[in-house]
Amino acid sequence: MPGRKLLLVTVDPALAVLLPQQLAQGTDFTAEVAPPEEGRARLTEMGGRIDATLLDAAVPQGPSAWGPMLREAGGGRPVLLLGQATDEDRPEVLPPGISGRVSRPIRLPDLVARLHALLATFEASPEAAIPLGDYAFHPAAKLMLTPAGRRIRLTEKEAAILLYLHRTGGRAVTRAELLGEVWGYSSAVTTHTLETHIYRLRRKIEPEPQAAKLLLTEEGGYRLGA
């Protein structure tokens, strides 16, 4: 099942093999690997389809040299540093371009929790733009932009539906799960409420709502198209 995508920038052969394997087993993240000199080009090539970058602190010239470049190439998306923190290099004092740090040896639950926190902060920021199909989705502004610059305004719930489906990395989300995450477990909210919002949302963002390509119906739920 597709997951949220990371780019791991490292010169450590063991880390390049082991960390992607660990992430692929039981987390909602997958990781591609690039050496530092290819990281910027890879992020630019992916055009926003990478959710965050993991930067090995052992890269040549150090994270201060690579952090700003990777942050810019990733459209402001988080850059998480993987490396030991010392008294002189405290976790709260981060190199330029770095969003946060996880110390090595890496504990997978700590890494995943830190990534989720950084991504939630980024998605709530005004500059966050998430590629969805042909659109740029701005969750904080509740706005979809077409390549031609046309603005599609979303309601709070419509934006929340799209953001949650994006966060699941393309997997199908059941109606019950989506109701719980977007509306909470209120007895006043029914499946009909969700279906009405999906219907209205498709009329806004799908050129042919009856043949949806972005907001897809799966058996028992919904997911985003590739």
Automatic annotation (TrEMBL):
Residue positions, PTM 4-aspartylphosphate: D56
Q: Which domain of life is it from?
A: Bacteria
- What are the Response regulatory domain coordinates in residue numbering? 5-119
Annotated keywords: DNA-binding, Phosphoprotein, Two-component regulatory system
Tell me which residues form the DNA-binding region. Answer: 127-226
The question of whether Phosphoprotein is a record keyword is answered with: yes
Tell me which residues make up the OmpR/PhoB-type domain. 127-226
Key word Magnesium present: no
**Cross-referenced PANTHER family:** PHOSPHATE REGULON TRANSCRIPTIONAL REGULATORY PROTEIN PHOB, REGULATOR OF RPOS
Q: What is this protein called?
A: Response regulator transcription factor
Q: Which organism is it from?
A: Roseococcus pinisoli
